[in-house]
Design a protein that fits this description.
The structure is a single chain. This protein is 26% helix and 25% strand. The protein is α/β, with parallel strands linked by helices. It has a seven-stranded mixed β-sheet with strand order 5-2-1-6-7-8-9. Strands 10, 11, 12, 13, 14 and 15 form a six-stranded antiparallel β-sheet that branches. A two-stranded antiparallel sheet has the order 3-4. The protein is elongated and about 65 Å long.
Length: 313
């Protein structure tokens, strides 16, 4: 049986490695083109490409999956099954119709909740206490296909998007491993999604990273951990971007009562930077001033002109 695997980031790597370890016949790996990274803009392969090349698998990197050339390249592999995991492009119907066993996707949410490109980040930002993996048949809509199997993964209070990406990547590989034998044998049940329960996890924008200090301490905490380690949250200090990479968990301290406007710095101590929030205060513990590296708030405080009464906007 010919399998084509389509994926790009580290999230997809455990699923690809599982297929290799289980001896499945992977006739091709499709991933996004190499992208420039870092200050020197060095062209870097995707994590999936690195694994594929290590195991001598053919790699395709089309700029546009919808192009006739890309479709022809995948068709030439004669896939019986296509498996995707965070590939990063919409798969056209011409591709979906190729394999006799269909196209399946390893999706990082409990569908129909959090369809879309940022399900893990959005779940954390929204304060969810659990998420999971859904393996589904792909359809032309955005994550609308029939579900095959699901597994629940708790979101702990200390989890960030980074830790949840790792947990879900391995949960996805395990669920895929358990699902494939029944799928290949024709023993799986297709469960249509209830569209009335669907929610969407749009890709994050710069606006999603801006901290609104009038929100509750818990909302701000969830926002920052949902953005770590990819972008962090940010506010403005003296007209420049001031990034926030870690906030002390609400409930581990007594929020300050204050009549100051939200965003006002209430204190600067070895515990961090206390900032007025909508329901009390939050403590910033890891920050990044404009043009500087990420640092502990204690280190920042030792050499800063920020003082009590400063208003972050």
């Amino acid at each position: 049986m010919n399998i084509v695997f389509m994926g790009t980031p580290a999230f997809a790597v455990p699923s690809l490695e599982m297929l290799i370890e289980e001896g499945y016949n992977i006739v091709g790996v499709v991933t996004q083109p190499d992208r420039p990274q870092g200050r020197k803009k060095v062209l870097m392969p995707t994590p999936v490409k690195e694994v594929a090349l290590k195991h001598g698998l053919p790699v395709l990197q089309p700029q546009r999956m919808r192009s006739p050339e890309a479709i022809a390249e995948v068709a030439a592999l004669k896939p019986d099954l296509i498996i995707t995991a965070a590939y990063g492009q919409i798969i056209p119907k011409d591709i979906l119709d190729l394999p006799r066993l269909g196209c399946i996707n390893v999706h990082g949410s409990l569908l129909p909740k959090y369809r879309g490109g940022a399900p893990i980040q959005r779940a954390i930002i929204n304060g969810e206490t659990e998420t999971g993996i859904t393996i589904m048949y792909m359809a032309e809509g955005l994550d609308t296909g029939d579900m095959i199997t699901r597994t629940v993964v708790p979101i702990e209070d200390e989890d960030t998007s980074g830790t949840m990406f790792e947990k879900l990547s391995y949960a996805g590989a395990e669920l895929l491993k358990a699902t494939l034998p029944d799928l290949i044998a024709g023993r799986v049940t297709r469960t249509p999604q209830d569209d009335s329960e669907a929610t969407y996890a749009k890709n994050l924008t710069r606006e999603d990273e801006k901290i609104d200090w009038s929100k509750t301490s818990r909302d701000i905490y969830n926002q920052v951990r949902g953005l770590v380690p990819f972008s962090g949250g940010f506010t403005l200090w003296e007209g420049e971007v001031f990034k926030v990479w870690a906030v002390k968990k609400p409930g581990t301290y007594t929020p300050a009562a204050s009549s100051e406007v939200p965003g006002t710095v209430l204190s600067l101590t070895d515990q961090g930077i206390e900032v007025k929030s909508g329901d009390g205060s939050v403590w910033l513990t890891k920050v990044q001033p404009a043009g500087k590296k990420v640092m502990d708030a204690e280190q920042f405080i030792r050499g800063t002109s920020m003082k009590k009464g400063t208003v972050l906007t």
